Amino acid sequence: MGVGSSSLSHSLSSSACTYLASFSHRSESKPVSTSSSNILSNSFIRSTKAMQTSSSPSHSSLCQPLRCQKSVDTETKLEDTSNTSVAGSLERPPELIKEMVSEALFWCSLHGLVVGDRNNKRSATVPGVGLIHAPLSLLPTSFPEGHWKQACEVIRLGLHRSDYMLDAQTKELLQIELNTISCSFPGLGSLVTALHRNLLSNHGKDLGLDSKKVPENAATSGFAEALAKAWNEYNDSSAVIMVVVSPEEYNMYDQHWLCEELKQRHSVTTIRRTLADINREGEILPSGALQVGNHTVAVVYFRAGYSPNDYPSENEWSARLMMEQSSAIKCPSISYHLVGTKKIQQELAKPNILERFLDNQDDIAKLRKCFAGLWGLDDSDVIKEALERPDLFVLKPQREGGGNNIYGDNVRDTLLKLQLQGTEGLAAYILMQRIFPTTTRAFMVRDGVCYQDTAISELGIYGAYLRNKDKVIMNDQCGYLMRTKVSSSNEGGVAAGFAVLDSIYLI
Prior knowledge:
This protein is of the alpha+beta class and 507 residues long. It is 34% helix and 24% strand. It has 15 helices and 24 strands. The strands form six sheets. Strands 1, 3, 7, 9, 10, 20, 21, 22 and 23 form a nine-stranded antiparallel sheet that branches. Helix 13 runs antiparallel to helix 14.
């Protein structure tokens, strides 16, 4: 095979890119019409209204391993908190919790379950400076085995992560979003699973828990295998894999786990460069190969480049264009990056769209079962419903990563502003049914402080997909990420300080 003839790809195949291109072209002139079957149904309104009756759960602080903290919850919760987590299923003796927290913190230090300390500015740029344990759940969160199997069966994509929540009212597993670049924590997430299995092996008898019910997590090895196979397809043994990173990265150790796996298990060299570095050092050779410094780049693995903040000048845009124009394998390419936008998620949820990309009716049914309500802002009926009941919706911009969604009364305020801007403003967002997830009680550890609180969790399934033209080389579910946060928080980012790393306990 020729150099650069393969691509890391979306499992809906290249036809999804064609669809995206045609959609993008049409959207410049007029909004895409929304099927009448996408209009918010009265049954959805009725079922979700029933979930609004709420009460404020109690909170309990724990004996402190280092110091004590009691979290404060200011948002009302669902009445149904019967799905108690493994952590909160029984009253845990404070002495046991103290012992386990201390043991967990030692384990994190010894096994590299660490991030940079945001109180130390140098920890984002200098390896080995200002390390602190990653925020984590002390015990895994219970999760229905049937829903776990369902999540593992759908949406196998590039090196991507598809995120889900369990809806408390319908008991359905519903998709939140698809991430094409913002797919962090395959390294540290795998370590948290190992930590929980270790803790349950040591204390399972006292806790009444079985470590074997925590599923193994091979995210690091799965991602590394996909990247190594892509590097192999490029067919140049002297070439490297280039990881595109932020100038300041507190989560660098998660990324280095993957690089170490590539080196030790696959003998593949990686380099790390910012977009500014690539603009300064990079060039496209007459052969089409991407040269960065003295290295020929076989695979470009983006771990940055999904936020507008990543492009402060034309230099960064020039670097992105250079990479796209080269023969290096992009993970993801710009077309697949755009396929992960919220608008495409909404379009794929329309009737008869999945049938354009998939033939197997069972696969189509499994995918569609995970879709929450999704609507374009060219639908006046849905906008009217959202203005009247903004608490039932989430307003999502065409962005990837946490911290961008709009909730509650801010949905109404933003919609009114967007209506004044006209078609262009409305096209920048979609509306999604707000999912009211099942709540649990969980022990969470951050900065050495352990506290118990009412929490909700989000399950991310990592997928690795590699093809060369029409030949599918790899299509595997290769691990998972469980994130748990206090139920009062709308955002779910671990690195951003909202959530902790977790794993699951099958029930």
